[in-house]
Amino acid sequence: MPDVVFALRDEFARDEPDLRRAGDLIGQDPALTGQVLKTINSPFFYCPTKISSVQRAVSMMGLARLANLVTAEALKRILDAGKGPSRVVSEAIMEQLRMASAVAGVVKSVAPDEAYLLAMMQDVGCLIFAELVDGYGSEWLLRAPTAPRALLEYERGVLGVDHVTVGFLLAGNWRLPDHLALAIYHHHVADLVAIEDPATRALIALSRLSTYLASISDGAQDAPEMQDDCESARDELAVAEDDWARLCELATGQPK
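-> structure tokens emitted (256 positions)
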């Protein structure tokens, strides 16, 4: 992870963060700056006016939201470089990111920057496992789209740890907000309503809807686990029927 991510989190943790210094920190990495501005001005963030500088982004979005976005873009750079066994996982993450963007556009309980970062981070452990374990990509393709909790069992049996734990530990190391780290850790939990924190619960619900929508192209959406997770997530986020129909149309390319 680039040093700018940790420096930015350190600045945010100060009693009185210096917004100008934060902007200067991001500006030290021109490639990252360009990608951050491109994402801010994309439909994902629905900005009413174009943001052309990091300093403007800091003043418009606030340091916390911008730090989330910088972290996500730094991780995206790593994903884009993925090759071989991890490629199938990184491509799936990109599709989930697209769906998370769409879901964030119709719900009010999850900020776009947090939706973006969660979509990038939730399966980062799978990327690591794909590079470490021969045959992991095949097991991931078999289990992840239809029965992700079975994937966790497989990971624990082979490696003694699962990808949600790895993601949670990385989130702590990268100083992500607590509710984001907890959402990564619990995003495959069977009982969504058992999660007490509403912010964490909303993020998990968004994760489940984006995963369900991404699974439609593979024909995996009818799996019982996918159906159950989708139903509880829709209830949690109170997604209206017409909004849901539009999201499914986006996922399939066909009217629902």
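DSSP finds 15 helices and no strands in the chain.
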